[in-house]
Predict the 3D structure of the following.
Amino acid sequence: MPYRLDTDGNPQSLVILLVTSRDTGRWVLPKGNVKRQEDPRTAALREAAEEAGVWGVVAAKPIGDYRYAKRHDDGTSTSMTVSVWPMRVDAVGDDWPEGDVRTRAWFSPADAAMAVDEKSLKKLLLRFRA
């Protein structure tokens, strides 16, 4: 979960970065699978760079998890569990691997919660404090 504060570190200015999904265009957090021999924090960094073009410092522990239905090309879906790892964003790139298929935008926690579909993710976004 990429986030940032304004330059003076004011917690009231917390914003969270969401990206559009490739298939439906819904607003989602950058996420993906942990590769073999990769720890979850490294996977979170890699996915944020690939899907959103951001880099930073991932928290030592996740803040929780949520479930969603991953849709497959054949019309079926699989229930997936996603651990949410906060990442303080230190750099934002103009060009990134999935930049041609995703849109990214910064949201207040309340607006991010309204933009996503998953109820348990909405709760995590609303209670997050940097």
Remarks:
- The mean pLDDT is 93.
- The beta strands are 2-4, 15-20, 27-28, 54-58, 64-71, 77-84, 87-92, 104-107.
